Automatic annotation (TrEMBL), chains A, B:
GO terms for cellular component: cytoplasm; nucleus. The keyword 4Fe-4S does not apply. Pfam families: PAD, PAD_M, PAD_N. This is protein-arginine deiminase. The lineage of its organism: Eukaryota, Metazoa, Chordata, Craniata, Vertebrata. Residues 103-266 form the Protein-arginine deiminase (PAD) central domain. InterPro entries: Cupredoxin, PAD, PAD_C, PAD_central_sf, PAD_N, PAD_N_sf, Prot_Arg_deaminase_cen_dom. The active site is at D343, H464, D466, C641. Residues 277-656 form the Protein-arginine deiminase C-terminal domain. It comes from Salarias fasciatus.
Amino acid sequence: TTSNTGIVLTTGYRLSFVCSVLRSAPPCSKFFSVKHTADVQYSINPPRSEADHLSPIPLNDDTVLLFSMKKASEEENDNKLSVRYYGTDKKMLGTAVLHLTAVEISLDVDADRDGIVEKNNPNKGCWKWGPDGHGAIILVNCDSERRWRKLDHEQDFIDRESDLKDMTTMVLRTKGPAKLPEGYKLTMHISQGDAESIRFEILQQTKQADQDSLRSKYPLILQSACLSAEVLYRRGFAENKFYVEGIRFPDKDFDGLVTINLSLLEPIGPGIPETPIFTDKVVLRIAPWIMTPNTLTPKEVFVCSTTDNYTFLKEIRSFVAKSGHNLKICHEYMNRGDRWMQDEVEFGYIDSPHQRFPVVLDSPRDRGLVDFPYEKLLGPDFGYVTKKAQKEDVNSLDSFGNLEVSPPVTVNGKKYPLGRIIIGVAFPTAAQGRNMTQVIQDFLWAQKVQEPIALFSDWLCIGHVDEFMTFVPAPDKNGFRLLLASPDAGYKLFKSLSKQGHGNATLFDGVETETPRPVDDILNDEELQDHNNYVQSCIDWNRDVLKRELGLDEGDIIDLPILFKLVKEDEEVRALAYYPDVVNMLVLGKNLGIPKPFGPKVNGRCAIEAEVCSLLEPLGLSCTFIDNFASYHQLLGEVHCGSNVRREPFDFKWWNMEM
Amino acid sequence: TTSNTGIVLTTGYRLSFVCSVLRSAPPCSKFFSVKHTADVQYSINPPRSEADHLSPIPLNDDTVLLFSMKKASEEENDNKLSVRYYGTDKKMLGTAVLHLTAVEISLDVDADRDGIVEKNNPNKGCWKWGPDGHGAIILVNCDSERRWRKLDHEQDFIDRESDLKDMTTMVLRTKGPAKLPEGYKLTMHISQGDAESIRFEILQQTKQADQDSLRSKYPLILQSACLSAEVLYRRGFAENKFYVEGIRFPDKDFDGLVTINLSLLEPIGPGIPETPIFTDKVVLRIAPWIMTPNTLTPKEVFVCSTTDNYTFLKEIRSFVAKSGHNLKICHEYMNRGDRWMQDEVEFGYIDSPHQRFPVVLDSPRDRGLVDFPYEKLLGPDFGYVTKKAQKEDVNSLDSFGNLEVSPPVTVNGKKYPLGRIIIGVAFPTAAQGRNMTQVIQDFLWAQKVQEPIALFSDWLCIGHVDEFMTFVPAPDKNGFRLLLASPDAGYKLFKSLSKQGHGNATLFDGVETETPRPVDDILNDEELQDHNNYVQSCIDWNRDVLKRELGLDEGDIIDLPILFKLVKEDEEVRALAYYPDVVNMLVLGKNLGIPKPFGPKVNGRCAIEAEVCSLLEPLGLSCTFIDNFASYHQLLGEVHCGSNVRREPFDFKWWNMEM
């Protein structure tokens, strides 16, 4: 009995293909022996001593012969393994001969995150956080190589070759004979779920006439409409390059991990399906969207120009120039009178070992500035992302003055090297409070690397966290201070002024549209004191949350003197800053652009400005007070609400976080 | 200046309420001193030496006075703290007096998982896996205290007092004066998201006339329509009991964790909202649904009675009786001719420190047995869960013969003390394969404690993993063996028979409806050999996956001699067992109920039975061959497909898993 079988054997890399030849031993076989060509190696299970291999070896029911090859074949069937079977009397019963072809196959990515696609990283098939972590990274291809076009990930072809920089390179490395034996083929495949998040193109290395057409040079091979595709086997360590692009960010229903599989299929016979005899896989994570706190270096400052904000614009231009930064003005044709630059967009970025670029998160707020981020920011290496919300779910808390991020902190030993996102919501005891819309909250939480903190901001009419808090850089401690609005500090200042004989000095001094109000009159207003007691208790609540969630102590916090007033709207009593809200400032490095408070003057100087300077200047900060009374404060916002800053990314790489 | 303020102070437990009194110091204050009643304690920040407390203490901008109380008050305002302020010359400028009422409040659950609600566990606010873990547990209240009624969690009232056993007890413990000071109140609240997963009732301790009405004795206080409710403050360590019930299992969009908050609200003034001055919280996890492998002790065996399965029923009854177990027969009026008991339901259980009961997962398959689980299994302490799927998404792979679970395993050091779930899907290289419907897959993965493995089962006509694999108990190694169907083992057996001169012995000997087929005829059928090569390669693929994902070696696997044939349906070529599929067995402890294979007879004994016995009996297993040819095999199923077993839960507690 001689049975000849050709078989492809994948060796080397991950899988040393094994086969228990002895399953097909002739009946009554009691012994066997093995012969093979130089590149074949084998072992017997249970193990035998070396000497036993020389003569016929006893064959039992549990005997398994495992074999593999040392290197890839040069030609098809260039190796051979034969097994002779013997009966009780060592009479030969038959021979089984296997003609062998060895192929090395490896699907490779930059699993060690150094920007280079290494060969067959043993950890490429799983993803681990941290400095000793592994697993490759994909960016959501959310920029646009051409302005005024779709996002790159919304079109299923490569528009410009520069788009490849935004994609993750994947290489199929093969070694073996010139072609695979007849009927064998390689396929690449992804799951339906993963196809909602990634898509990839292959570089066609054919020298076609239409080489110039990027569609034919880089055809799309895997996407949700096509989960599996045959890929060509190319001899040698051919650099078969694939380009993988993310098409959505991590979200509530998507943890960010995707798997790409490669299989070698073996033919069995006509009319019978092929079966996989080898599969390799790589696991990749979609990079999260990352926010940038006030402590990072500014790159660009954005404000709106409107028909009525000339004074503000002049002062902010001078402040930004003095700070040495770049001012970008969004003109009226684009902002349509909507001056709240802080509220329509949040600047962030995405990062990978191979590419990094800024990404703007567009708020579902969608007022006059609705088209600005898509039309003016999106472009080559400037990404865009938004989340659709039901119109009726969107309210003032969805403006991004209500979305901030802390500097890096360590809380009870847990490190947040990229800080923590801060949003404002209703306090849950409220039966009918306003909240940030769920789709945005879900998106923020799903990014994982800046675990959000929910503060209570619904006590404010506008309801934004930037109305009562901000962060400024500091040379000591954590490298920053938390600034909080403080009615208590306000009253303390006013009482002190009264005590010092300045009870007749007036708030709103120099403001055309307001009646100046003496300090003593304010101190005697019991209703205002009640209102501010309430506000202080709301801020105290947030102070406790911030201390706990950011690991701060009292020394990390500075209270700025700000009074509020309560107003009733829609049956709800909520708070507004009584005079310009000095905590709502623009932070450009050590330069602070602060709403000019128009406080009572003592010896010609505003006592509130003086107090703010005395609190902040010891930290090396420089305070510039900007008049935003008529054009912002009276419209219920201030300097911070009316500006926005794109900042340098963190030096820290998000994949090095310990999760 | 004397300012008197009454203030509630919560002490003891989690939060020692602090207040920086010095924020309200009169202007020009340079020194201060503190007096207080016996139960008050205070500290000054930055710290001063003990001696400094005796005389007026220097007051700086950063001076903070922190105070708390040692124990709860007996009466309102029974304690006092006064601060005197002095100017430069130590002349007294004023006194601030605080009248203090201390209350101890704690929201308590069984955070240490011993079945008892301890007092104020410091870890109650977060949830941790493992033997040193913490955090309380909730069951989905998915049983029904009355048969023929809704699931308990589908009705928003307590039907019978016994229902309380299925809920998690939460206790609000308070200590303090007879009532809270005017205007203060306690509220309990949950988030909208958590309200989709839990709901809770409170025990009203009033001795009302309608005490007998469970609706008024245990009114529902929190649910999705009501996220926040005031709860009564009751003096002393009153056992204010709440009963929390889960209303849905962990799923793709729900990680199983919920938070319950308690707040103490302080009034500020008329027309001004209250603010929270203290919040306590507990975090609980919904218990996952857990499957039971073949190695667990059987409790009940289920089979269907149909018009044509008398022989089968007689043999199975005798087998189950011999094994010492309880047989439950589902009669024709209930099964409507649908005999596939394995396929309509999967038995599992849910577990907590306070309660445990079986829960049946009802397949979306929904054929004749559709009403059986709801009508015959659901009842007191027998839960029910199902997942709705789109009708067009449901196919044969959604039957639960395609849902199994391994015994406990350790894989590369990672422990799976509850085993791993096993399902069958299409191999993803297939363009149009069948898969288990996504809602069921999502549910299984979300349970987390038995991390699923997806095998390739779409190569079979019926497409169930139980057609090619099962687990049996073993006295050694991992405590089990994996049995795999093996065409190679089948051919080896048949060749051996031929060699031994039994080439004329026939398969299907004694089967009325089949033509007996000689061994040599089978061996000469090259097409059948091709078919079985294909099947072997499909099973080998799964063998590799199982070895890798369950940490098995060849010695953990036993190959049973089974041949398959390929048939073409809907343009797809798929496999069926050629003779009764002996791996598709019913495992009751050491007793195996195996489909009678009707193999070729040697000396009057079926050679396949003999081979199976020789492979399994050395493990201490007892093989009983059951004739299911006409009533199951010819309808494309076998003993396992036609039966189901409810088993004892694991001794191991799922919350002790290391995740």
